[in-house]
From TrEMBL:
Organism of origin: Paenibacillus silvestris
Gene3D superfamilies xref list: 3.40.630.30
TM region positions: none
Annotated N-acetyltransferase domain residues: 7-171
Protein name stated in the entry: GNAT family N-acetyltransferase
One Pfam family named in its UniProt record: Acetyltransf_1
Taxonomic lineage from the root: Bacteria, Bacillati, Bacillota, Bacilli, Bacillales
Keywords for the protein's UniProt record, in alphabetical order: Acyltransferase, Transferase
Listed InterPro entries: Acyl_CoA_acyltransferase (IPR016181), Bact_Acetyltransf (IPR050832), GNAT_dom (IPR000182)
UniProt-recorded Gene Ontology molecular function terms: acyltransferase activity, transferring groups other than amino-acyl groups
């Protein structure tokens, strides 16, 4: 997995969370029109709520020249991670991966995913997962290019009851000790 050379990925400091939320919202703004007002407002509420969750979560930021340019949340397997999914996904999940629109196509998302994969592998997991939808074709293309494969058994319908939230997972080469 090739990553951006001049980007550092690290844990977000609590004083950066509001900036990270704003960056996430800006990164997803391109979908606002397609989502419609009610679904978009609900999506924004969800973004804010995810950053405030107290359960185990890695809050990651990508920084370039002392500026936050990307964010991601990484959750360990946990019951109830997705309200509409009754099963517990048995591997870590990336959520709300976002890159500042002015910094796209520079390997920042790949760097964030690589760090998530490193952490999942370090913790002994064979897979790293995420969810997206056909509403986000650029994201789907990126994930497929990086080796993610569909895992439909963890699909569910979004709050609009028409959008399928599709599950993907990346096989990690786990070294047994």
């Amino acid at each position: 997995m090739s990553t951006a050379i001049d980007v550092s990925v690290r844990d977000a400091r609590p004083d950066e969370w509001e900036k990270a939320v704003a960056l996430t919202i800006e990164a997803y703004r391109q979908y606002e029109t397609g989502f419609g007002p009610a679904f978009w407002d609900q999506y924004i509420s969800n973004i804010k709520a995810q950053w405030k969750r107290t359960e185990d979560t890695w809050r990651l930021v990508a920084e370039q020249e002392e500026k936050l340019v990307g964010v991601a949340l990484l959750y360990p397997p946990q019951e109830g991670l997705y309200e509409k999914l009754s099963e517990t996904i048995p591997y870590p999940e990336i959520r709300l991966l976002g890159v500042d629109p002015s910094a796209r196509s520079k390997g920042i998302a790949t760097s964030l995913i690589a760090e998530c994969a490193r952490r999942a592998k370090q913790d002994g997991f064979a897979y790293l997962g995420l969810h997206t939808s056909s509403r986000m074709p650029d994201a789907v293309r990126l994930y497929l290019r990086l080796g993610f494969e569909r895992e439909p058994r963890y699909d569910f319908f979004a709050a609009d009851q028409t959008t399928v939230v599709e599950a993907y997972r990346l096989a990690l080469a786990v070294v047994q000790t």
